[in-house]
Amino acid sequence: MTENNLQSDDLQNNFTDRNRFERLISNLSARFVNIQPDRVDPTIKAALSEILEFFQVDRIGLIRHDINSDYYQHIHVADSSRISPVPVAVDLPTALFPYTYRKVIKEGAVASFSTLEDLPDEAATDRQNYANWGIKSLFLSFRLAL
After folding, report:
1. Cβ atoms within 10 Å of 81's Cβ, excluding its own
2. How far apart are the C-alpha atoms of 35 and 144, rounded to whole Å?
3. What span, in angstroms and rounded, lies between the C-alpha atoms of 72 and 105?
4. Least buried of 27, 44, 117, 118, by fewest C-beta within 10 Å?
């Protein structure tokens, strides 16, 4: 295969992936139009499961946190069958992951690591608690303030 053929294949794969992602987002968005209140939670759970499958990750979820509180809750979570679930609808202290809390909530930055060793020294508490929870990598992004 020539380099031009490989580049063409990469472009086609990128287009296909982007098209699949756009269809996923469009389909998920359509489900929330005129949804009955009693269907919101199960629809969110189903949507998270589809996103989990699309990205081939082990966990995806939504977290609730009042900026004036020292606690947060996982309010909706989808887990793969390969990992242990996290507590849902339970107050958890932000002190469990102070580095991640500061980066994502206080600074509005992305917190990510491929391995626990990627975390900086200042994230020692986070590293230990991620290890205790069986979390080996993470991508945590933005907060939605209501």
Report:
1. 5
2. 21
3. 11
4. 117
Of 61, 54, 53, which is closest to residue 86 (Cα–Cα)? 61
Could you count the other beta carbons within 10 Å of the beta carbon of residue 85? 10
Neighbours of 24 (CB within 10 A): 16
Sequential pLDDT tens for the chain (146 residues): 555 555 667 667 778 889 999 999 999 999 999 999 999 999 999 999 999 999 888 888 898 888 899 999 999 999 988 888 889 999 999 999 999 999 988 888 888 899 999 999 999 999 999 999 888 888 887 666 55
SS3 50: helix
87's CB contacts (< 8 A; 6+ apart) are: 74
- The whole-angstrom separation of Cα 85 and Cα 5 is 43
Which helix (DSSP H) or strand (DSSP E) does residue 62 occupy? Answer: strand 59-65
For 140, the token pair is 């945590």
Tokens for 9, please give them.
């294949």
- Domain regions of the chain by residue span: 97-146
DSSP state of 10: H
